[in-house]
Amino acid sequence: MRVIIQLFCLSFLILVSGSAAMAVTAQQWVTQDQDGFAKGKMDGLVINSDGELIAAPKYEKVQTDEVAIWCSVTTPTGETYFGTGKTGNIYKLDGKKIVPVVKNTGFVVTTLAADNKGNVYAASLPGGRITRIEPNGNSKVLATLEVLYIWSLQCDSKGNLYAGTGPAGRLFRVTEKGNPVLLYDSEADHIFSLAIDAKDNLYFGTAHGATLLKIRAEDAMKEKVKAQVVHDFDGSELKAIQPVGDALYVAVNKTRDGSAEEVASALYEAAEDIDEEDEGIAPESSGTGGMVYKLAAGSRKPERVTKSGESFILGMKVDNAGDVFIAVAGDGMIRYSARTLTRAKIEIQEKQVLTMDLKAGKLHILGTSGPGVLYFSQPSVKPAPNYTSQVFSSGVPAKWGNLAWDAHGTLKMEVRSGMTQAPDETWTPWKALAGSGEAAATGQTPYIQYRATWPEKEPQNAVLRQVELSYIEANVSPKMKEISVGTGDKGSKSSRKSKSSSPTVKVRWKADDDNKDTLGYRIYYRLSSESNWKQLNPDKLLTKTDYLLEKQKFPAGEYVLRIEVTDEASNPGERALADTLESKPFVLDSDRPTVTLAKIVPVENENAVLLTGNAADGISTIASIEYSIDGQAWKSLFPSDDIYDSKTEPFTLKIAVEEKGAHGVAIRATDAQGNTSVVHGSFQTQ
């Protein structure tokens, strides 16, 4: 059986051939499988485990004043009763009205059963009390068993009543007068489930141990009989049993601690503590997983019906079509289809379904907790259910191609498109397509959406498996974002001052393209004083976003760069688009500054000399002047005006030397481009 957890998310499959030509290659938006249809809006639809959209069962919601609808039963004459949690009230359905029948039977009505005369039997916690409700509405306590829990009640075709109990795991037959007869005393802690087939054979399931046992009809009227083991399941409890024809369906749970007594105690505590704010019941926290099996007539090997890893099962029903419905702790209700072998979640607001009931072989009602709500199954699915996809964005305006779909049955498909992310009055009206493969829309827009509508009559016969839309993006011009000009590998912003002596200047830039095209670049340059541009790379397009300028290749001066970005590699001919951006002016200067010593004269009455000179550069400002006496360390020297802010900087230096005799001096000047010159001089001290 193919079963996959159904939860809904949308997947986009973008199918392209060749990454370098994305803008000119047709692409496809494909919606398929469970993920594919997920974020669209479903009205009257569900997604099965094969990822197909199908018509959903129709339910009508009726709110009650109760906290939890714990159990339910439908009599052979078609009347439905349900029991509640916390109050222990029992109600009868009169059409769609809820009529109180018996109040305050206990904390929780654990189970209900009906005989062929229309009598209804109810067991309540705490204690082993069984209440009988007659068709006329009269009720009385039929029997009180000496047990803590009655978990299950069943009536055979002759009207005999049977009760499965705990914690001693005993099975009783209760006579019409209310006398309990011990039918079977098991070694299990509890008898959780009972079922009677068309031949009045009695089946029951245990906890702890999850054993399915059988008592033949001819032995059911005896006392303390032996039971036949049908199958011992790998589990902690056998939660539910239902005969269907010659087969048996059973729901088996595993608990974390493996103790049915713990589960029973949790139920009891839940009955005392549950309130209107609760979203679930205690057994959810005790369970680790459940499974439904089918035992065919004559087969000793159970067939697994549900997927592995299903949550703790609170209830199970099988309809005449063989579809299996399970109430799952914390996850509402799930349907396994016998026809399509798929799994689908029944969408209701409440997460905790505690009871389900059949009527005429079809699912009739659901009862929930937190709060207590009844759902009535309608005789047909919703007419003309529909699916509206999420808005698909191509990112840029696109030319939309054909919309094709894979479906069974007749579906009406419509398309609309627009320029805004959310559909509004500016969008095109819905356009109906004559058939699969027709053009979806005219014009170029970045957003599109489709809608599929099922037929009004027999919508359950239509299935949508996949929708595929072809499109090609309209070309959008790439954009130059930024240019930075730095020295060496630093990549700093364009600047007029630098102390680096690197022979190169690194240019970096940024560009982007909404089409994600392959981009190429051309670099042009000119002196600030000139008007004509010269190209640095005339032979081929650059593909990187950086370039090294060798300063010695250019005359010293102030320059401007212009970088052009183009998408012509992805868009041939007239489709190609380009954009340009100019840099801020920057200096390229590999010439050394000039340093001169005007004079060196002694200072009167001092053992010192006064040195004057000048540092100058034709392009760059002087960045620093330094001096060294007799080969010692370089020391900084300030210009005459104390500020390095000019291409010419006069300087004066007073040098005091203790030792008499000849001395040497070196003056070094560096311009803003890192170019350096040195001049030497000498002097005598007395």
Structure description:
- The structure is a single chain.
- With 686 residues, the protein is mainly β.
- Strands 1, 2, 33, 34, 35, 36, 37, 38 and 39 form a nine-stranded antiparallel sheet that branches.
- It is elongated and about 140 Å long.
- Residues 1-23, 274-286 and 488-499 have low confidence and may be disordered.
Give the helices and strands, then pairings.
Elements: E1 27-32, H1 33-36, E2 41-43, E3 45-47, E4 53-55, E5 59-63, E6 68-74, E7 80-85, E8 90-94, E9 97-102, E10 108-114, E11 120-125, E12 128-133, E13 139-145, E14 149-155, E15 161-166, E16 170-174, E17 180-185, E18 190-196, E19 202-207, E20 211-215, E21 228-232, E22 237-244, E23 247-255, H2 260-273, H3 283-286, E24 287-295, E25 303-304, E26 313-318, E27 324-328, E28 333-336, E29 343-346, E30 353-359, E31 362-368, E32 373-377, E33 386-388, E34 392-408, E35 412-418, E36 431-432, E37 438-439, E38 444-453, E39 463-473, E40 479-487, E41 504-512, E42 520-527, E43 534-535, E44 546-550, E45 557-566, E46 578-582, E47 586-588, E48 594-602, E49 608-616, E50 622-629, E51 635-637, E52 648-656, E53 661-671, E54 676-685
Antiparallel strand pairs: 1-39, 2-33, 3-4, 5-32, 6-7, 7-8, 8-9, 10-11, 11-12, 12-13, 14-15, 15-16, 16-17, 18-19, 19-20, 20-21, 22-23, 23-24, 24-25, 26-27, 27-28, 28-29, 30-31, 31-32, 33-38, 34-37, 34-38, 34-39, 35-36, 35-38, 40-41, 41-44, 42-43, 42-45, 45-46, 45-47, 48-49, 49-52, 50-51, 50-53, ...
